[in-house]
Write a structure and sequence with these properties.
Elements: E1 2-4, E2 30-32, E3 38-39, E4 50-52, E5 54-57, E6 70-72, E7 75-77, E8 90-92, E9 95-97, E10 100-102, E11 110-122, E12 130-142, E13 150-157, E14 160-162, E15 170-177, E16 179-185, E17 190-195, E18 199-206, E19 214-215, H1 218-232
Parallel strand pairs: 3-5, 4-6, 5-7, 6-8, 7-9, 8-11, 9-11, 10-11, 11-12, 12-13, 12-14, 13-15, 14-16, 15-17, 16-18, 17-19
Antiparallel strand pairs: 1-2
C-alpha cells in the first residue's frame, strides 16, 4: 500500500519575485507502506506472472524472462537482474532495494508508486517506459536508456547517473536532489517543471537546447555556458 506525499521540495506553482516568473512545481513522492509479505518460493520468473504481496530476497533472476509480469505490493531486496527480461512488466506500490544487474530489459515497463533504493545497474533498458510517482534514491546507474519514456512525479535523490539517455522522453515534475548527472542526453526531450538545481555535477552532453521547462542555478548556468554557446553557434574568444 502507498500513502502519497502531498508534494516535493519544489513547492507549488506561484508567482516569483519581480521579473521572476512562476515557481517550479515539486514532484509528488510515493511513501511505500508494504503489507506483511510472503516469501517468494516460485523458483524462476514466468512471462505474464502475477506476483502480489511477495518478498524476493536475494533472488537470482539472471537471464530469466518475466516479460509482462505484474508486481503488486512487492519487495525485491538484493536481487540479481543481469540480462533479465522484464519487458512491459508492471511494478505497482513496490520497493526495489539493492538490486543489481547489467542489461536488465525493462522496456515499456510501468513503475508507479515505487521506490528504487541503492541500485547498482548498467545498461538498463527503460525506453518507452512510464514512471509515475517514483523515487530513485542512492546507488549508481550507468547508461540508463529512457528514450521516449514518460516520467511524471519522479525524484532522483543521492544517486549517480552516468550518461543517461532521455532522448525523446517527456519529463514533468522531475527533481534531481543531491544527484550527479554526468553526460546526459536530452535530444528531443520535453521538460516541464524539471528541477535540476540539486544536480552536481550537471553535465549535458547533447540536447542542452531542450532545457526549456527546467530550472537551474546561477552556478550551473555558468558551468553550462560553453555548451550553450556552442549550441547557439556563438564563438567565445
Amino acid at each position: 500500500m502507498v500513502r502519497r506525499a502531498a508534494g516535493g521540495a519544489g513547492g507549488s506553482s506561484g508567482s516569483g519575485g519581480p521579473g521572476g516568473g512562476s515557481r517550479v512545481k515539486g514532484a509528488r513522492r510515493p511513501e511505500v507502506r508494504l503489507p506483511p509479505l510472503e516469501p517468494f518460493r516460485g523458483g524462476e520468473l514466468e512471462p505474464d506472472g502475477d506476483y502480489d504481496g511477495l518478498e524476493f530476497l536475494e533472488s537470482d533472476f539472471v537471464g530469466q524472462d518475466g516479460a509482462g509480469s505484474r508486481f503488486m505490493d512487492c519487495a525485491l531486496r538484493g536481487c540479481a537482474l543481469d540480462e533479465t527480461g522484464l519487458r512491459n512488466a508492471r511494478f505497482l506500490d513496490s520497493s526495489l532495494t539493492g538490486i543489481r544487474g547489467v542489461g536488465t530489459d525493462l522496456s515499456g515497463a510501468t513503475l508507479r508508486d515505487t521506490e528504487l533504493i541503492d541500485a547498482r545497474l548498467g545498461g538498463t533498458q527503460l525506453h518507452g517506459a512510464a514512471l509515475e510517482r517514483v523515487l530513485i534514491r542512492g546507488g549508481k546507474i550507468d547508461y540508463l536508456n529512457l528514450r521516449t519514456a514518460t516520467l511524471k512525479d519522479v525524484v532522483f535523490q543521492g544517486c549517480v547517473l552516468v550518461e543517461p539517455d532521455f532522448g525523446g522522453a517527456r519529463l514533468e515534475r522531475v527533481e534531481f536532489v543531491d544527484c550527479a548527472l554526468k553526460g546526459a542526453d536530452l535530444t528531443s526531450a520535453t521538460l516541464k517543471d524539471v528541477d535540476l538545481r540539486g544536480a552536481a555535477p550537471l553535465e549535458i552532453a547533447r540536447g542542452v537546447g531542450r532545457l526549456t521547462g527546467a530550472v537551474i542555478s546561477t552556478a550551473q548556468l555558468l558551468d553550462l555556458a560553453p555548451v550553450l554557446a556552442a549550441e547557439a553557434g556563438i564563438r567565445v574568444e
